[in-house]
Structures are given as C-alpha cells and as structure tokens.
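For reproducibility, we list the full input for the pyridoxal-5'-phosphate complex.
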Amino acid sequence: MIRLFAFQTSILFGIPTVIASYIGRPKLELDTPALCIDLGLMEGNIRRMAEFLRRLGKSWRPHAKCHKTPAVALKEIAAGAIGVTVAKVSEAEVMAAAGIRDILIANMIVGQPKWERLAALCGCADPIVACDHFAQIEPLAAICARNGVTCRVIIEMNIGLDRVGTRPGRDTLDLALAVSKLNGIEFAGIMGYEGHLLRIENANEKRRQISDAMAVLAECADKLRRDGLRCDIVSAGGTGSYQISAECPGITELQCGGGIFADPFYLQGCNVSGLDSALTVLATVVSRPTLDRAVLDSGRKTLNPDVQLPIVKGWPDATIKRLSAEHCELTLGPQSQNLKIGDKVELIVGYADFTTPLHDHFFGFRGERLEVVWPILGRGKLQ
Ligand SMILES: Cc1ncc(COP(=O)(O)O)c(C=O)c1O
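The corresponding predicted structure, in tokenized form, follows.
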C-alpha cells in the first residue's frame, strides 16, 4: 500500500520514484544529505504565528523565501494567511500556478520581460508589486492597460534599513499620487522592512526602535489618506521582529515567514520566543580522522552556514568546526566521540533562506516516519 502510494506520488508530482519510495520509512533509512522538515513542529509554528497575528488584528502574508514551496504556502493559507510574499516574478508564477492569488512581490521589478510577465500574471492572480520610483511602474502600467488588466502597487519606504525605499514624507506622497493616476495600476498602500533592527540585544531598546520605525509607516499612511488616497495595506515585519511590530498601531499586515522553521538565527540571534526549530539536514558520518573529529557529507553545497552556523541536534558536545564544498567537520566532545562511520546526524539549519535553494526536495517527517516529499518548486526561480 505504501509502495503504491509512493508510486502514485511520483507520477503526480514528478518526484523521482527512488525518492518517493522512502515515503512511510523511518528517517534513518533516508539517503543523505537530505533537507528534512519536522511537520509537527512546522505546523505548530504556523498555527502559533497565525493565532498571534489574528489576536492582534493583523493580517499575515508570510514571506516564502525560506521555503519557496507552494505546498508549504498552502498550509500557511489554510491556517489563516491572506496570501504570500515573494521576491521574484518567477516565484510569484510558481505560487500562482498552485492557485494562490494574493501574492506580494516585495521587491523592485525592472525590465521589459519581467513587466510583460507581471502583466500576464495579473490575468490569473492578483499580485501586488513594490516600487520606490516611478520608472519601475510607468512601463508596467502601459502594458497592463494595453492587456486590460490592473496590477496593484505598493510603495516601499526606507524606514532605516537603507537598502531600497523612498524617503518618508514628500517623496513618498509624490510617488503615491503619481502612481495612483496611472491606468492599469491600483495604488494599494506602503511597506517597509525593519531588517536592521532584528538583532538588537536589549529588549526595551529593540521594542523602542521597532515601534519608532513602524510609526514612520503608520504616519505616512495617515498622510496619504488625508491626501485622498486609499492606503489599505501597511505592510512590514520579519520573523526577527514580528512579536513587536505586530503590536504597533497602523500596521495592517506582516510578512514574517522564516518563523515557520524557526531557525537558530531567529531564536538565538533575534531572541524570538515561542517557536521550535523545524528544519534539519540529515547527514552521514563519512570519516573519523581523529578521536575528536567527525566529517559529514553535508558541506556548503548542502548547508549554507553564513548567517548562522547549524547546530548538531542531539549531540550538545559536538560543534561545527568548518564547512567546505562537500564536507562538514565536527569537533566532538566525550559523548559524541561515540559517533562512527555510517551513523546519521541531524544538523539544525542555522538560517534556511540560503540552504533551501540548494535542494530539490523537502522531506516532511511526522515523528520519525517520512510522510511527504515536496519538490522545492521555487528553486532556481531567480528572474
Ligand atoms: C522585504 C522583506 N520582508 C520580510 C522579510 C522577513 O522575512 P523572514 O520572516 O523570513 O525573516 C525580509 C527578509 O529578508 C524581507 O527582505
């Protein structure tokens, strides 16, 4: 029965039969390296984030950059998310193909091919695109008007990250007025990302600075409304700050996405509480050069350590020493020195965003048994 289901899965979703054949089997039988989701923990995180935001009266539009997978986005929507946030037109296309309509592309989209695709997307979904200059939107408007579709647009404001975004005040108001006059475009609101404030250690200081940044957005939204514009969307927030930004008045929705995996970057680096790390790489010990060293088959082509080092699950005295392309070297303490060649080890992914795009599939486990294999359909979608 399990085999039959696995075979059907491979036909239905294009998953290679050899991979689908693992469904129903225990984790330790899976070949490595493999990107594994603890479904119970991820679903718990999704439920808690959705409930928290619902209680505070904010909509949830989770960023999909950490998973790039429609199956995961559909779980978020089933839990109450109003749609999804992405960074690329091609990611939006992947989500739209799965039937998701409300898609925020929280990024500047520039160039004729992308404007054409975005306008085409407006025929089958209801995307929103961010901008911080008229030059990003005027050509899109012309194509949309010609195609008889309307694309929603929000303005990204610089609320201190100094990456992209209009200056709060006159610049934002002028752009909003100009955009709102275009045929083929509906001005839908504003957004800002407080990414520079996630790692402030002092809790009071973090709250103060995030509240100030959110107030800049809320004040600008009020000004736009006083100028006669609709400003339905005031969007902000990442996982590293969502527990604070959700409490700020005037913000209508939050883009926090990575919390569904609750990587150590968020729990340790940003002091986010109430979520459980759900994403691991299962690896195999392939060499034991010395008593206090083990080498795993999960180097940088499997696991990106740049933002936050992975954690060795279940072996508190084992630490990551170095990652090269195909090798992950561990330093072992007295307990983990029992590890031998062929043993499987799980590494908690430090920051999922740079690791998931290295993989073709998520392996979703219910406890220790493989329940589902999801192709990471947004992998390689960079344009
Ligand atoms: C525009 C935007 N929104 C939200 C986020 C936060 O995403 P996450 O909650 O996955 O950290 C980011 C992170 O880079 C971002 O660039």
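The chain has a mean pLDDT of 96. The first strand starts at residue 34 and ends at 38. Both points were considered when choosing residues for closer inspection.
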